[in-house]
Design the sequence.
C-alpha cells in the first residue's frame, strides 16, 4: 500500500476547495475553506438550459477548475496540470507524485465513485488522492461524502475516463509552494475586485447579475418545463443547498470569506458587501425552499414568489458587487493590508 504521510483529511463543504485545502495543508499553507473560495474568485451565477438538458441548472460558481487556476496564480503557487487520453499514462501521472510523497488532485465524474449514494453525472467533481493499494484508491472528498473515503481502482478509472459536460481528459494536478508565497491578505483586494468585475460585466445574459434576472423571468415556467415536476424541482432545490455548495448556492461561503476579510481590511465597501451577501445568502435558501414547495405541491404561486425574490437578489448582488469593485479605489488609509 502506498500512502502519503501526514495528510490532513478534513472534508469541506465544496469539492474543489476541499481538495485544494488537502494539497495546500500538505505544503504547510492552511487557509480556511471560505478564504480558498474567495481568493480563487469562485463566486458567479449561471442559468443553464441546453437543448439536451432535462431541466434547467442554476450554478453559483465559476466553471470547474477555474477556481484552482485563479488561486494558484494569485498566490504564486506552482500548479502542474496533466491531461491525457491514455488510461495508462493517466495512472502514471497520479502514481508518480503519490510514490514521491505528494497528494494529487483529480477532476472526474462523481457518478462512478463507489461511495456516492446519489448517482448523478457531474464531470466537474474534484477530489484529492493520497494513496492506493492493489484494489482501492484513497481519497478526500467533501464532508457530506464522508471526508476520507475509498473507491475501487476500477471505479476511479471509469470516473476519470468519463466524457460529457464539464469533464476533462484524466486531469490530475499538484500544487507546490514556490519559495515564500505572498501573504493571502495582500491578495484579497485583487481577488474580490476580479470576482466583482466578472459578475458585473458578464459576456452573455446567462451569467452574473444578468443571469439572475433571467432566472427570475424563467423560473415562473418551471412547472410547465418538465413532465415530472415532483422530481425535477425538488432536485434543483437540493442541488442549490446540498450539492457541495455550502448552502445558498455558494453565497454562504462567500459571505464567510467577506467576514474573514473584514478582520484583515478596514473598508466601508467591504462591510457593505458583507452585509448584502449576508442578506443574499438567506434569500437564496428561501428561493430553494420555494422551488421545492412548488414541485411537491404543483402550486405555481411558489414560483411567482421565487421569481420576486430572484429579482431582489439580482439587485442586492449587483449592489454588493458594485461596492466590492471599489475596494481598489479606496485610499491607503481606508484599506489596511
Sequence:
Amino acid at each position: 500500500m502506498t500512502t502519503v504521510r501526514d495528510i490532513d483529511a478534513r472534508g469541506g463543504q465544496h469539492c474543489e476547495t476541499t481538495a485544494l485545502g488537502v494539497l495546500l495543508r500538505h505544503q504547510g499553507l492552511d487557509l480556511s475553506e471560505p478564504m480558498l473560495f474567495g481568493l480563487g474568485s469562485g463566486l458567479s451565477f449561471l442559468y443553464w438550459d441546453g437543448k439536451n438538458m432535462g431541466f434547467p441548472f442554476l450554478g453559483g460558481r465559476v466553471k470547474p477548475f477555474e477556481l484552482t487556476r485563479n488561486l494558484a496564480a494569485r498566490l504564486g503557487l506552482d500548479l502542474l496540470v496533466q491531461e491525457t487520453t491514455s488510461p495508462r499514462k493517466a495512472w502514471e501521472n497520479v502514481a508518480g507524485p503519490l510514490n514521491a510523497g505528494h497528494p494529487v488532485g483529480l477532476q472526474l465524474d462523481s457518478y462512478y465513485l463507489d461511495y456516492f449514494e446519489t448517482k448523478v453525472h457531474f464531470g466537474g467533481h474534484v477530489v484529492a488522492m493520497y494513496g492506493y493499494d492493489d484494489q482501492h484508491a484513497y481519497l478526500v472528498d467533501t464532508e457530506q461524502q464522508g471526508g476520507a473515503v475509498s473507491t475501487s481502482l476500477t471505479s476511479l478509472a471509469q470516473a476519470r475516463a468519463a466524457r460529457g459536460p464539464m469533464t476533462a481528459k484524466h486531469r490530475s494536478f499538484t500544487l507546490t509552494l514556490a519559495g515564500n508565497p505572498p501573504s493571502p491578505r495582500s491578495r484579497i483586494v485583487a481577488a474580490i475586485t476580479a470576482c466583482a468585475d466578472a459578475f458585473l460585466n458578464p459576456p452573455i445574459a446567462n451569467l452574473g447579475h444578468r443571469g439572475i434576472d433571467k432566472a427570475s423571468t424563467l423560473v415562473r415556467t418551471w412547472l410547465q418545463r418538465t413532465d415530472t415536476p415532483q422530481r425535477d424541482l425538488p432536485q434543483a432545490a437540493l442541488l442549490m443547498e446540498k450539492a457541495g455548495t455550502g448552502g445558498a448556492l455558494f453565497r454562504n461561503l462567500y459571505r464567510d470569506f467577506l467576514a474573514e476579510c473584514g478582520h484583515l481590511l478596514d473598508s466601508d465597501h467591504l462591510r457593505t458587501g458583507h452585509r448584502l451577501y449576508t442578506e443574499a445568502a438567506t434569500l437564496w435558501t428561501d428561493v430553494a425552499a420555494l422551488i421545492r414547495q412548488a414541485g411537491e405541491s404543483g402550486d405555481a404561486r411558489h414560483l411567482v414568489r421565487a421569481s420576486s425574490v430572484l429579482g431582489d437578489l439580482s439587485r442586492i448582488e449587483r449592489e454588493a458587487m458594485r461596492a466590492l469593485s471599489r475596494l481598489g479605489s479606496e485610499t491607503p488609509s481606508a484599506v489596511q493590508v
Summary: The beta strands are 2-3, 43-48, 57-61, 77-82, 104-108, 125-132, 136-140, 148-152, 172-177.
